[in-house]
Amino acid sequence: LTAIFSLWYLQTFVYCDHLIGCTIVTFWLALFLTLGHLNVTHDCSHFSVTNKPWVWHLLGSWHDFINGTSEYVWIHQHTLGHHPYTNVDEADPDIVTAAKEVPDLRRIKDTQTWLPRYFHQHLYMPFLYGLLAAKTRIQEFFILFFYKNNGPVRVTRPSTVHWFLFFGGKIFYYTYRILIPLLAGMPVWQLLFLVFVCDVFTSYYLALIFQVSHVNSNVEWPLPDENKVINADWWELQIQTTQDYSTDSWFVTFMTGALNHQTAHHVFPFVAQCYLPIVTPIVKKTCEDFGIKYNYCGTFWDALSSHVWHLKRLGRVDKQEYSSHEVSVLKQKTY
Asked: The whole model's pTM is what?
């Protein structure tokens, strides 16, 4: 938090007349904002930081006050939706796509109807990931005031405290990000440019980390039966619907908040992220003992390639067949 506001001070008051210097500071600010979300708010949304709810809410309010997004909406989507129903169509909010009568921008599930627009989705979708932050801030207003649900997850009416955090967070965020820099004399065009750079950086960072772990062809995409039941072990499904990468790299582990150990995180979501590197070898060994597929990519770039290839495969699945060579080149290493 000290680093974030120090960088914000440099951006707003020290380098405000120096566009290049200000832009460099903005990249560092975006990096620390992202790491804060990956570590502080994410751990708090899983209640893994102490056993005191007031600490969860205090640190979780980073979402509202620092990032300008709602912790309340995030918990409904991530903790109550994505984790219990990982990659389950019509249950996991993270893979919700538009209704059939209003086709989605991307095709990530075999259950979606193929359209010609998807043929080049592996080229245009990665660019749209940069709009994640803006999309989230707009979407949460509709979720709380109109939809009352986040995809298949019903969003209960917020308490007075949560309303305070929501509106208070918005006021604080736009005051320190927009109002104060303007009052300090920063040109409007420069401020909008810097906010755009910061948002695009954090959006890409977060979107790619989350997408490579679940949206690829190496993991399972469970389908409920006609009674909306999946006859499978929940823990086994968590392993089969998740992909790890670079778990032996301290650098990648640090830069992703240990979320490259995604399988251990999904099996033990209430364990603090700093312990995930200790848990991962146990999970791998258990998978080996019981013959359960453990999805793993040696590097982040391999994991990213598996995501892009998934978009390409589903964008062209009705138009062409992939050669065995294309599949083998992008196929992840499985233990």
From this structure: 0.88
By the 10 Å C-beta count (0-12 exposed, 13-18 middle, 19+ buried), 189 is classed as exposed
The answer to whether 254 touches 103, Cβ cutoff 8 Å, is no
With beta carbons less than 8 A apart as the criterion, state whether 224 and 230 touch: yes
Read off the tokens for 157: 């009416």
User: 319 exposed, middle or buried (CB, 10 Å; 0-12, 13-18, 19+)?
Assistant: exposed
Strands 295-297, 243-245: parallel, antiparallel or unpaired by DSSP?
parallel
Give the pLDDT means over successive 10-residue stretches in the chain (335 positions). Answer: 88 87 93 91 88 86 90 92 92 82 83 88 90 91 90 90 93 94 92 94 93 94 87 92 96 95 96 95 95 94 95 77 46 42
Is the distance from CB of 33 to CB of 67 less than 8 angstroms?
yes
Residues paired with residue 244 on neighbouring β-strands, in sequence order: 296
Nearest to 243 by CA among 217, 274, 270: 217
Q: Are 97 and 112 in contact (CB under 8 A)?
A: yes
User: How far apart, in whole angstroms, are the C-alpha atoms of residue 306 and residue 110?
Assistant: 16
* Residues whose CB is less than 8 angstroms from the CB of residue 236 and which lie 6 or more positions away in sequence, other chains included: 292
Cα angle for residues 132, 27, 243 (degrees, 5° grid): 50
- DSSP class of residue 150? E
